[in-house]
Write a structure and sequence with these properties.
Distance between the termini: 29 Å
Structural class: alpha+beta
Number of strands: 4
CATH architecture: 2-Layer Sandwich
Radius of gyration: 14 Å
Number of domains: 1
Oligomer: single chain
Helix content: 25-40%
Strand order of the largest sheet: 2-3-1-4
Strand content: 25-35%
Shape: globular
CATH topology: Alpha-Beta Plaits
Amino acid sequence: MNNKKLYLLCYDIADDKRLYKALKIARHHALGGQKSVHECWLSNEEKQQLIEQYKALIKPKEDGLLLIQLNPKQTVHVLGQGIVPEENDWFYMG
């Protein structure tokens, strides 16, 4: 049984070095995204790991982080070149 939930991860990091590190963290967990907004399928354990990584990185007085659980059954409305997020048991890079 799949116990992962769909989240939207958004961040605003003031420092360029921390911003780059935030992007690396997000890309480790994300299946898609753009700039500082990423779609992530996370288990409870992965969610806690992600939160701990960002707690160690961000400066609360300068930076912002938002992690919102989404309803994957909700209709997705796409504008532009976006695609509907999917969760697969595999990932292909070609």
